[in-house]
Amino acid sequence: MASKRRRSNPKTKSMTSVPTRAQRFAFFGPPPLLDGEDAALYDDLVGRMCAAVKPVDVIDELYVASVVSLEWEIMRWRRLKFSVLQASVHDELEGFLNERLDYEAYAEDFAQALAEILMEILQESPQKDLAEEAKELAHQYARSQPDAVKRVRLRLTAAELDADQILDQVKAQKVQELAQEYARREPEAIRLVNELLASSGRTIHDLVLEALPRDLDEIERIDRLISIAETRRNISLREIDRRRMVLGEALRRNLQEVEEGEFEVIETTAEGQNRVQARRESRTGRSERAAIRGRRSSH
Amino acid sequence: MSSARKIKANRANARASTGPKTAQGRARTARNALRHGLSVSVSSDPVFSEAVDALAREIAGPDAKAEVLELARRVAEAEIDLRRVRYARHQLLNSPLSDPDYESQARVREKDALVYRCMRVDGPFTPMPYHVVEFLDSKPEGPVKLAMILSDKARQLLAMDRYERRALSRRKFAIRVYDLSCK
Residue B94 falls within a domain, yes or no? Predict the structure, then answer.
């Protein structure tokens, strides 16, 4: 029990451990991460900043912690701005595709979806080879064959379903897929979208321009956050600079005092004069040797 | 230079605008400081006070003189205050972001309007189009959700930004005074 108390409450200086930088940064509170942000990346940023600034005391560390947290914020808001713009263009593209996408582009998907629904409906009837029949019927419906249209509508109505609604659903899914593939820069999707854009006399830049006004408020708000964080980060960096100057000045003054202190010791005795003489000679010898070394290295 | 008449009028007007008059208004303004508690000094909270003392000792070192420790305490107070504001701001964004059911007020209004429009146009018993149902079922996610939260909490964020600015300024000047004392 006693040993425990001693360990938790050190009495002498030698028993206290020097806190590491990680421990000290932990003292400044948990990293300001939002849900889904990577703590390892934040720690990496802390490490890089510490390596660059080399904080000399706790106040320097306060500033470094501030700079890191503000830099993290700047990166977060920049990413968000990019994502908002991207999402906005994506929505605009979806709207455009919804208007312009030809039935041919999703007729096959529609036939497949319809075949699956028909198979579920036909399962109730005692016929064999349901999959083949449902597939055939769905494809005929998709090609608008009057007999198939009539039969499918009857079946769907009996099951309280609507063919137009299924078509809407398939179209919306196709549009979404195509927009996502375009965002992933898949060549086939790019070709199809560019063809549709060209046929309507527009380009993707027109869609960006149309999307921009809708999100201007959000973008402005994010820009403001970026600008505030940048200003505060720069102030912190300036303060680190200022402290370095003060520290440098203080160091210079200390060095001067040490040097002056060295020259103040003047011994007037003969023995002392001899010692001063010997020191001067040794200094002269040292400077001569340095000059020779300098000359050699320059050659 | 303002005339005596103008000064008199200004004073009379100033007396007229002395805060809320009604009981409801007074009750509302009485709770102003309790909204986030950021206007309360850190030294009045025992937990923060302990943190301030610990940080001041860290800054000044173990054998610091009383005056230096006092200046370090000012730096620590500003720093803890800053941390408190940043934490409140972080919570303001992170709580809704980690809530899977979060829905912005603007989107709720948009959804209500869409349902009303569909019912008015197609009647109450017609199934809604797929894209409408999809939108009604959708929940904001990722960056879009964060952008919505920013938009929803814009006013509170602005208020917190003012507190942060003040705390930063206080910390900067407290550090300058502390540095001068250590010269």
Answer: yes
* A27 contacts on B by Cβ (under 8 Å): 55, 58
**Nearest CB to A239; choose among B83, B172, B182:** B172
Instruction: Please report where in the chains the tokens 């879009």 appear, as a residue.
Output: B144
Residue A129 φ/ψ region, left for φ over 0, alpha for ψ in the -120 to 50 degree band, beta for the rest: left
- Structural domain boundaries in chain A: 18-83+219-247, 90-215
> Taking a contact as any Cβ pair under 8 Å apart, which residues of chain B between 5 and 44 contact chain A?
none
- Is A58 an interface residue toward B (CB < 8 Å)? yes
Question: Per the structure block, which two tokens stand in for B107?
Answer: 């989107």
- Structural domain for B72, as ranges: 40-100+166-183
- B124 found inside a domain: no
Q: How many domains does chain B have?
A: 1
ipTM of this predicted complex? 0.77
Could you read off the pLDDT of B45-102 as tens digits, one per residue?
788 888 899 999 999 988 888 999 999 999 999 999 999 899 889 989 999 999 988 8
Q: Are A80 and A72 in contact (CB under 8 A)?
A: no
Task: Tell if the pTM clears 0.80, that is, is over it.
Answer: no
Residue B90 lies in a domain: yes
Question: Could A62 and B171 be called an inter-chain contact, meaning their C-beta atoms sit closer than 8 Å?
Answer: yes
